[in-house]
Amino acid sequence: MQVTNRPGEHITCLIIMIATIVWVQWTSFLLSVAWGIGLILLIYTLFKLRRVRKISILINDTAIVALIIVIGYMLYHSSGEIIKNGLAGHDAWAVILSRLSLILFVLPFALAAMLTKKKPLYLAIGTWRTTIYFPWIFKGPLKDPIWRFMLIFLVMVCAVFSFYIDWGQPELLALAGYALSFALINAVLEELLWRGYILSHFVSGFGELKGLVIAGVTFGLYHYHLGFSWPVCLLFSIFGIMMGGVAIRSKGLAPVMVMHFVMNVLFVLSGMIL
């Protein structure tokens, strides 16, 4: 998908998204509300200026997406905290059910798509047969259908993580059940949010590569509130770009949901996520 943008639009929109996802995780509820009000004022100002001069529609649309993220994140985080406090002493159930709060993060994007009557590009099952290239997804000396790429990738990842899992721990079966439940909820809802809606929006506006960078970087930084450090979040941004590339090549979410699910299971079993 080839899209022509004005100079500086992509960087400006990337900055807006990074600033928003960092701000809502790093500050209080009231300061997040203040950021949302600031975005509303920015959207209103840009809308007014468009009448007298050529102001970027993409920047205005990005500010709207950022506002939806603020609303969705506050709903998701607040409900998650209520669930965790209500289930104090039942840590596993608290974490699993709090991940269901992601529905409230997805909901504002779903409503916005319904109101605008725009079908997100990647809100579909997708295909496993499309060619994917290694190492750069879109280009590279090696190419394979997505199903074979995924099989090789997951076998390699499982082999690496097997050295970090305590296979002799007494609660391994219980941990495996928790891992499967957590991974299923998290993979489905996060993929709907980040690849189904957010990636689709930015690819529509900026094309595949630039849209992929904005959505992938923001996805990685979003993990800060889950207890990961900023350097680890930057690593997750790389994974976010890779998973976004799989969604783009497959034209849907099924392959990347499987990838996300397996990765989350391994993260839990290895102790990275508790």
From TrEMBL:
Q: Which residues cross the membrane?
A: 14-43, 55-76, 96-115, 146-165, 171-189, 228-246, 253-273
A Pfam family matched by this chain, by name? Rce1-like
Q: Name one GO biological process term.
A: CAAX-box protein maturation
Is the keyword Transmembrane assigned to this protein? yes
Q: What is this protein called?
A: CPBP family intramembrane metalloprotease
Give the Gene Ontology MF terms in alphabetical order: endopeptidase activity; metallopeptidase activity
Could you tell me which InterPro entries the record lists for this protein? Answer: Rce1/LyrA-like_dom (IPR003675)
